Please model this.
Amino acid sequence: MALRKIRTLGDPVLQKVSKPIAEVNEKIKELAYDMLDTMYTANGVGLAAPQVGVLKRIIVIDVSPEGNKPIVLINPEIIAMSGTQSGEEGCLSVPGKSGCVTRPNEVTVRGYNLKMQPIELTGNELLARALCHEIDHLDGVVYVQKVEGDLHDVAVQED
Amino acid sequence: MTTEEKRSLTAREAAVKMLLAVCKDKQFSHVVKGKYLDKIEEKRERALATRLFEGSLERMIELDYIIDRFSKTPVRKMKPAIAAILRMTVYQLRFMDKIPAGAACNEAVKLAKKYGFSGLSGFVNGVARSVARAEEIPYPDAEKDRVAYLSVKYSVTSTIVEQMLAQYGAEISERIFASFLQQEESISIRCMTHVIPTNEVKKRLSEADVTIESGYYSADALRLTRIDSPERLPGFSEGAFYIQDESSMQAVLAAGLTGDERVLDLCAAPGGKSLMAADILTVSGNGTVEARDLTDAKVALLNENKARCHINNVTVRRADATVFRKEDEEAYDVVLADVPCSGLGIIGKKPDIKMFMTTDQEAELCVLQKKILGNAVRYVKPGGVLVFSTCTLNKDENMGGYEFLKKECGLQPESLEQFLSKELWTDSTKDGYLQLIPGVHKTDGFFVARFRKGKR
Model:
């Protein structure tokens, strides 16, 4: 297990467009496992490679409450979306903040797994939100550009 | 990405989230409630969230009217989150006695900041406090503009007000609108008589201190007063009864089942009519029911209810009722067609309908209904019965469907009087149809018509 350093807002790497992955070699596999470890340790539900300073098109997601359903997607592309959802969203690269973002309620994504086999995945609600959020990172987009209203501190539980 | 999804919510936060989901993302109120209420841990907070959400939704047009009198920016131009916060706050100020005005305003400001609108918290504060200070806020002048007056007073869109006035006249329309805002006095259940006899269900419920009355219009129906969660009542999990409005029971009664019929329920979910028909058939014969609906979710719901009520003579299937199925042609003694409709009869239960239903949508529904009815007619055996029902008050849909079946499909309407309780007989029941009206009848708004298909 290796944790990587999460780059935070202000780091120019977050604004850059990532390059497609041509083949899955040991380095890519190691990157994927490190990203999962990093995401779980930081209590995130998704992480994209540029967030750990690597400009490659790979994302990891796990929205299950137990944290035991990891998804790794290489060269992901959104091929269909429908509906809308507005809700709070945060990012490991913008610690301690969150903001309201409107996203499609359902998206279908095409990409490759770690065996470089093509896969297609349809997700709704939180998964759809996470897919959009992470794929945005690969194009240099951070959710703060899409926030409606202002960014605000993550509310500490009241009462 | 990170998420707050797993964090529990306060009542007001949850109410704002639910209002946003309904108003901005056009989700259904009952779906939204299922999603957010669970996230509130404390029971009292959950009750408050429910009241704030349902109340703000039910009174939204009046709330917007009040807010617009004190805000330079009209509600429709506000950011959705700000609109939701203000609506919920003004609801507390005008409709809830126990919440001090100051507290309601402070909470609104806190929420606005939390949603990232620090810059607008002063605006929220200003509007909320002006509303709190204001004395009586008059409705629009009834003499000058009757539609606006009714629309604000009963929080129904002017489109629906105009439609109801044209179809039902002023007096009945007002009774309908008033009934939408009234707390329901009782819920009705139908006993699954093949599981446990009605008397036994009655006995068990009264032992659990539930106030019971007999159904007003139907045998084996009971009315239960002031029930919070009917799912927790004795007998529910054993399938001793099914929660069903008495209006929808009339559709099955109108079918006049005797015991050995083959029944098709075309738009069956959640399943009240299918289960009631199946129960009647089990008790008095060997008849069967085929229950269909459009989506996997609805089919799952049907299966769940079927299993709970120990029904063996129902087959559940996913099928689109607008698509004709050759194998069903002239295969059923009775076809129940409870078609998708505008739902104006159940606004009391689903207040989002009165805010969002449009005449365009209604016109689209009329087309869809005729498509389904056209197929339904072909599934009835010669000499068999078709029951057409909706949960709306809109005569374009109801009488439109009735005339379509009578004139274009050549079916013969049949009097409902031998099947329905005498109290429901009207001028029209002899002609084969009944319009139930909330505020007039003690049910939801509902339409039912019975037809016989000619023998060859």
